[in-house]
Write a structure and sequence with these properties.
HIT family, subunit A; globular; 10 helices; homodimer; 364 residues; 24% helix; alpha+beta; 3 domains
Amino acid sequence: MASTQEAAGNKSSEVSDEPTPAKQPRLDQPTASQESTAMQQHDFKKFRLVEILDNSQRAKYVALLGKFDTTDGISSSSSSSSQDGKNGEDSKSSSTSAILLLEKEAFPVEQLQQSQLGLSLFDHRQTVETVMHNDIWHKYRLPLESSFCLAKATLVHPATDRLAAKYRRRPCHLVVESPEDYRKRTEPALKSAGAKHSLAWVGNLLDGSAEADRLVFDDPDPAVGFVLHADLKWDGRRIDDLYCLAVCRVDGLHSLRQLGAQHLPLLENLMDKGRKALRDRYGVPLSQQRVFLHYQPSFYHLHAHFTHVSADWPGQQAERAHLVTEIINNIRLMPDYYQKATLTFPVKEGEPLYDAYKDQLDLL
Amino acid sequence: MASTQEAAGNKSSEVSDEPTPAKQPRLDQPTASQESTAMQQHDFKKFRLVEILDNSQRAKYVALLGKFDTTDGISSSSSSSSQDGKNGEDSKSSSTSAILLLEKEAFPVEQLQQSQLGLSLFDHRQTVETVMHNDIWHKYRLPLESSFCLAKATLVHPATDRLAAKYRRRPCHLVVESPEDYRKRTEPALKSAGAKHSLAWVGNLLDGSAEADRLVFDDPDPAVGFVLHADLKWDGRRIDDLYCLAVCRVDGLHSLRQLGAQHLPLLENLMDKGRKALRDRYGVPLSQQRVFLHYQPSFYHLHAHFTHVSADWPGQQAERAHLVTEIINNIRLMPDYYQKATLTFPVKEGEPLYDAYKDQLDLL
């Protein structure tokens, strides 16, 4: 649900932070369990790089497209019924293609604190590279000890071309949308694209038939009420990384563009009850909660994001996130602000809204 | 200048990406050169962790405070004249204290592309941990080969308590500032704090006596002109990470709060000439440039940030960055928008503005 719908911003957030206990075979020693369907083990020595789909300098993340050289050592064919395989040829060509999402692990601060490991962080058998010295400032490149050199890996295998396209980095542009643009370009593009999407999962959230275990708060009021869930992107442990999602109960509100004075009670209720619920559950002061809407949102049923102000999630940038305090202020200053405003939002090449605005963009 | 003044947001961006050729002694083998003042080498085996000052899950960054066990193997005392050492005692206590900023290196995509290394990424002597399997989705923890396990390190040594405080993570809060708050709290707090700061470096930028080598564009008009420099945070190589800073020539404009209809020519000139200069120099289309002001800014002389829309820099979040397209739109809708608006901004505990607003914040 939420995490699937919201994941477009950054795939690295899909890489799990919660490893579960499992067997630990060595990479170069295929074991009997690799042949079983219960717990297959891929032979990464046979993975050949075809394309780097994406990479992030900041998150230390790469998305790789590759192929397994042979079918030996590849996980059993029992799992080859790809959801994205549309036809026989697609399935066949994808049978050895794989997408490998890698993200370096963060420094394990708890471990450092407990053991006072200090410099057992480093591999003292390796060489250190001196970059520069200037007064009290010294720059080095230091080799890390192998236990600090793990990558969280998600392997999608077998993978189709459609899946590869999902993870491939595409150039992004900023669209500057006037009210007239909204009527003439955005609305028609969304209507024709939206026909393909189902929001059944939103209904399941609202009636409690899905993700009840992640529910934090439920305000049943049909006009101003909402359900607030811990987002699947968040592991629920580190409070500094808090990410929750509030889905409003009112139907027919698609985005920021429709908000006006009549929605002030809804927005104020979100800020009041939503933040207090997170304070009560997680101990986060109201003044440390960032509450915002996306424009454009990734699904067109009004919802708000709640994150810890210290959290460094994708989708919080100025061109996408609109603080609810700011929205309330704008509507108070000018009740039809969001019908009159020129709004900027990002689009990726190939998306329906990109095609709708392509002729307006400066593409060199 | 710019990078020093702007660095408050995230110290990890200070860690250089540009290693220069240097000797490569082994960490556990002190060499003769360690005793020389020309190229000292710290003995990281003698670094003992005292405190984890900061850490970022996303950037894989930690700031560590520690001490060197003895003075053996520590860089020569010729570099111990700390800029921050205020008195004898401070200098003495800091003589073995050190701050170590570590950031894992990103995956080297060029290297992967050239060599088709594929899975030489991984250390095949180490064990792989299986986290889960579900249909085509497989999660692992993979050991990385040692050449992909380097950390960019900045050692500040000797380090004072003041320097440690600079790198120590402090809780952050969102202030909601009404126009009245601005007059009664923000302005007085900034005036008393501002008396301590010099903006001489801004003058040096504007008259060309500093950083001329990083100048991208200069519009000499005293009313709407500006100088545009490549920011020191950016290495100038990866276009996706572009970061430039425009400093306006007009004097007396401190922040967003003062902008009105009379500044539309200045803002439009920035958007027009600044973006075109970056298109001409770096080939970045106008629609891929994010142009924004900070509120609160880190120094109170009007300046704008230009980044590539794909760049993942700190300080681009909705609570700090205001797109210039949005600012222009707001002033067109309501010429005194920024004098009437309620603006949200982040403050860190201990900052002058935090103290000015402490009683308004919800601190539990």
